[in-house]
């Protein structure tokens, strides 16, 4: 009987240890659930911000390292160039590799940040489809120079009675003729 006492004590200690570990894990999981998790940042935006922190030479060298498959050297270069932490540098280089960014000078960044009064068309990486219909008549405009904001301004112009201004704006942001734009705008003004 004495030979069973030591194994029973060891078994009891191990069981208590497992129970304490399980309790600690469940508390940690509950704390994480209660605190909530922050949404992950948009990787394209992370890449844009990361590229803005680099000079033209640093930008060129970083992409050369990425192209050669030298991720560690690229992270080191970014780390030394920006002074950010290692984890932030790793995330930035990963975003830059997944979402390549062209070099933009600080002057170009500042000019883009200022609102454009002349509303010069910009090309987007996607095609936007605007559809207007009245009765059996339906018109569609598809362009990579349109987005929700621009189309909203065009609709507002049309609904406020400035059909010529709306048609002009639509031709500026698409590849349709003024006649086609007027036909499209005529379907919008209700």
Topology:
Elements: H1 2-35, H2 43-52, H3 56-67, H4 71-82, H5 86-98, H6 106-113, E1 128-134, E2 137-143, H7 148-159, H8 163-172, H9 178-188
Task: Give short descriptive properties of this protein.
9 helices; 190 residues; 50S ribosomal protein L7/L12; mainly alpha
Stretches where pLDDT is under 50 for at least 5 consecutive residues are none
Name the structural class: mainly alpha
Largest sheet: 2 strands, antiparallel
Q: Going across the major beta sheet, what is the strand order?
A: 1-2
Percent helix = 55-70%
Description:
With 190 residues, the chain is mostly helical. Helix content is 64%, strand content 7%. Among the domains are: 43-98, no CATH class; 128-188, no CATH class. The protein contains nine helices and two strands; from the N terminus they run H-H-H-H-H-H-E-E-H-H-H. It has a two-stranded antiparallel sheet. The longest helix has 34 residues, at 2-35. The radius of gyration is 30 Å and the shape is elongated. The relative contact order is 0.07. It comes from Pseudarthrobacter sulfonivorans. This is 50S ribosomal protein L7/L12.
Quick synopsis:
With 190 residues, this protein is mostly helical.
């Amino acid at each position: 009987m004495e030979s069973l006492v030591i194994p029973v004590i060891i078994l009891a200690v191990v069981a208590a240890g497992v129970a304490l570990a399980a309790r600690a894990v469940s508390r940690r999981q509950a704390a994480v659930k209660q605190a909530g998790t922050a949404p992950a940042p948009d990787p394209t935006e992370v890449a844009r911000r990361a590229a803005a922190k680099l000079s033209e030479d640093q930008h060129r060298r970083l992409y050369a390292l990425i192209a050669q498959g030298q991720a560690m050297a690229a992270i080191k270069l970014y780390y030394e160039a920006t002074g950010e932490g290692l984890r932030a540098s790793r995330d930035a280089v990963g975003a830059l590799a997944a979402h390549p960014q062209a070099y933009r000078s600080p002057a170009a960044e500042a000019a883009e940040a200022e609102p454009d009064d002349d509303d010069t068309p910009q090309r987007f990486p996607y095609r936007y489809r605007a559809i207007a219909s009245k009765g059996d008549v339906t018109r569609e405009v598809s362009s990579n120079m349109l987005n929700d904001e621009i189309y909203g301004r065009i609709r507002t112009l049309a609904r406020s009675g400035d059909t010529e201004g709306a048609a002009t704006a639509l031709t500026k942001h698409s590849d349709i003729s003024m006649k086609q734009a007027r036909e499209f705008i005529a379907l919008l003004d209700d």
